[in-house]
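S., here's the first fold you wanted:
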Amino acid sequence: MNVRRHLISGTAAAAACALGLGALSACSSSDAAAGGSGKYDVVASFYPMAFLAERIGGDHVHVTSLTQPGQEPHDLEISAKQTARLQESDAVLYLKGLQPSVDEAVAQSDVKTKVDAAALTTLEEHGNEVGGHAAAHDTHQGEESGGKDPHVWLDPVRYAQIAQGVGKALEKGDPDHAADYKKNTAALVQQLDRLDTSFKNGLAHTKSKVFITTHAAFGYLAERYGLTEEAINGLDPESEPSAARVKDLEKMAKADGVTTVFYETLVSDKTAKTIAADASLKTDVLDPLEGITKKSRGTDYFSVQEANLKALQQALGAK
């Protein structure tokens, strides 16, 4: 069996504690690593990766997320404690390009199984306007584009591709439980296929095909279902839009029959509400699913995505 059981030597434990690395089981029994449970130990960079590990791994895995609930994943600076935790794991699941500090820690670690979700599907370059008629007249690509768009998990089809890759990695890393990983992966992919069908059917006939968001997180979803996402900010949710961009959005909203400006749970809604008030539009939540909190409209990936679908149907005037 390939699972490392994380039995830390007395010397290593003393060194870890001296550095304040309390997350290791040798230092703190309240936050023990998976070593005591005998489970395959997976460190995930943020919620969409942790969700895959938990659903595919089931009872055979112990999953730790580096990004805490309510924390903006783009802003994560991995701590020494988390670096040590990652180093002691059997596998790490992350999305290269989203969290630079995680990318660096993974590159420097000797974890046997490193799963980069970005390598399991295709990433594209997205500007502030994505999908539909975007290619014809997005004049802000160079100004506020963030390059390769990492938000692939919001497209159920791409997320299913990632799930299949994660399943194969767990089968290889922990062959004793390969049959269960394969079965769990197949069940998850089927559920994602059903979600894809719900989005496809639910957004097929709408009065408008354009929606405005604060954060350019929904480009892949827009492209998948024939919509156009107009983002106030770029791929960085904390960036501020230019005055020209705001003016263009207000003009576009009137021309394309836009009713709603969407904001998200983990970032301030101030800009969305200001633009909505100036253009006499409504505001609502469209969740980029970077973390689950008490404010989330759902308790997991699927329930939040179903809430996203309902919000889009209402905003776009689904028939």
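And the second, which I think is the more interesting of the pair:
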Amino acid sequence: MATSSTTSTFKTFLLHGASAALVALALAGCSTTGKDKMTTGSIPTMSKPVDEMNGADLAQATLTLGKAYEANPKDRDTGVNYANALRMSGRNDQALAVMQQVAIAHPDDRGVLAAYGKAQAAAGQLQDALATIDRAQTPDRPDWRLVSAEGAILDQLGRSTEARGKYRDALVLQPNEPTILSNLGMSYVLTGDLKSAETYLRSAAAQPTADSRVRQNLALVVGLQGRFPEAEKIARQELTPQQANANVAYLRSMLAQQNSWQKLAAGDGGKKAIN
């Protein structure tokens, strides 16, 4: 069976566009790339969304948003963005506390409920997160992002068959959406099927709207199959040299755990690895 440290580390970059516990910012420091598609838009007075910021900018944004939140804790956008900044900073318990208060103030807001479910998942409250996201969903007008988010949480619970069913349902609602295809590909990594994972991730990366996180996931899966030069080339696409170097360094550190990853790739208890 894959070691607990390996699967724990894997969970830190798994699955795109769902919960922060499942974030597919695939390779270290990637919170500076891509957009978090389940939160509100750009932060007021900020030049970019928090998930596109480097560490220094994120720290400043978190401080600024924290002050704004203290001044008006019932403001929807400030609360959601502040929680997002806290999650991006790894402060998941604080993010959850903020979203609890925002959800109390806006109990019927689908966007707030979706962000609340994400915060719950980031804090490890996976069953609660599923229930919250279910409340956020509207059966007659289902949101593909929420369906994909359900799949991501189910993958964290080790329920890969159900998770993939959710991803495929999401693809019916939003065909060829790269974030869903990426989630589906990373789901196959959890059960050791790297060939299927690569197929879906290449399809995701080929979509015109694919962002850098999708390609970072692809780089990881290619690297896990021993093709590191190809993985490094993919990892360096569309990033600044500083970001690319950080991602490649993290990729190297992950692949250094070769024995553990080989066990996972061989399916040695892979389906139960994160239960």
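Why I say that: The chain has a mean pLDDT of 78. The two ends are 12 Å apart (CA to CA).

Talk tomorrow,
H.
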